[in-house]
Amino acid sequence: AKVTFITQSNDEITVEAESGSVMQLAVENGIEGIDGDCGGVCSCATCHVYVAPEHQHKIGAASEIEQDMLSLDDNVNEYSRLCCQIDVSDEIDGIILTVAV
Ligand code: FES
Fold first, then answer.
1. What atom in ligand 1 is closest to the CA of residue 66?
2. pTM score, two decimals?
3. Ligand 1 pocket test: which of 38, 49, 81, 86 has the largest number of ligand atoms within 8 Å of its C-beta?
4. Which residue is closest in CA terms to ligand 1's atom 4?
5. Which CATH number covers residue 88?
6. What ipTM describes this predicted complex?
7. Quick one: average pLDDT of 75-94?
8. 25 near 18, Cβ under 8 Å?
């Protein structure tokens, strides 16, 4: 699946993978602002992204643990997700994610 990240410097970077999490994909490609400090276990929120409104349907709802973690983040909004909790799959092909501050 192809995933496009819009970074804090407004760069648009499209990367591709077949599996793994979106956070891993971002870290492997050095996407600025996605650190993945906790290794993807939903406990750091350094993988915070905003999912484009028109792409919300491509991913399921956030789990309760993810929502709890997000609620601790000052920059949370209705489009927020932790991208370590999003799996790379055909379903998300073409998704656009804005890296949160
Ligand atoms: Fe830590 Fe996603 S990498 S919450």
1. 4
2. 0.96
3. 38
4. 42
5. 3.10.20.30
6. 0.99
7. 97
8. no
